[in-house]
Every structure is written in C-alpha cells, then in structure tokens.
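Severity: low
Component: inverse-folding endpoint
Summary: output formatting inconsistent between runs
Steps to reproduce: submit the following structure tokens with default settings.
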C-alpha cells in the first residue's frame, strides 16, 4: 500500500501543486504494483485542520476537483475513492466523480 498522507487543499499554491504531484506519483506506483494508495482530502488550514471552511461547499468542490485531477493524471486502470468517517465521502469509481459536476 502507498500512503501519500499530505494536504491536497494546502493554501500555498506551490505546496498544493507539489502535494498533488506526489499523490499522482503514489497512485501511479500503486496501480503499477497492484496495490492501493491512500490519502486524505486535506484542510484549508495549511497544516493539520480544522478550518471553518472544511465543512463547506467550497471544500467539497475543491476536493472533487483534486480527486478528478489526480485520477486523470495518474490514469490508474481500476480504482475506487473512499473515506473514513471523519470527512467527505466519495464512494465508487472515478466516472462517478466526473459525473458530479
């Protein structure tokens, strides 16, 4: 299993871009090795949360956009996106994420 464990909603644009690139790399490696890759949606707090906007529509929309980007760039063959009980839940295949816009 690959674990990215970084903040995909990092407020600093350069750090966010680096975090997203790292998640893409982890997912691509996990797909090549037949394993999974886990991460968290992140927080607008710039470190460990919480942030007042972390339960907002803005958070949801940014998280969906990040997931779409990671899935599009890594292009894994088979995958699902899931969450623990402490945040936004995306369950199903990437096609469902693309259809939520």
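Observed output (run 2 of 3):
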């Amino acid at each position: 299993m690959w674990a990215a464990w970084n903040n995909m909603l990092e407020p600093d644009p350069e750090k966010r871009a680096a975090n997203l690139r790292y998640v893409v790399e982890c997912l691509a490696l996990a797909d090549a090795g037949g394993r999974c890759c886990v991460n968290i949606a992140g927080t607008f707090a710039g470190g460990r949360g919480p942030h007042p906007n972390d339960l907002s529509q803005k958070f949801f929309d940014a998280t969906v956009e990040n997931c779409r980007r990671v899935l599009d760039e890594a292009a894994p063959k088979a995958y699902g996106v899931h969450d623990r009980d402490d945040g936004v839940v995306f369950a199903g295949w990437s096609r469902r994420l693309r259809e939520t816009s």
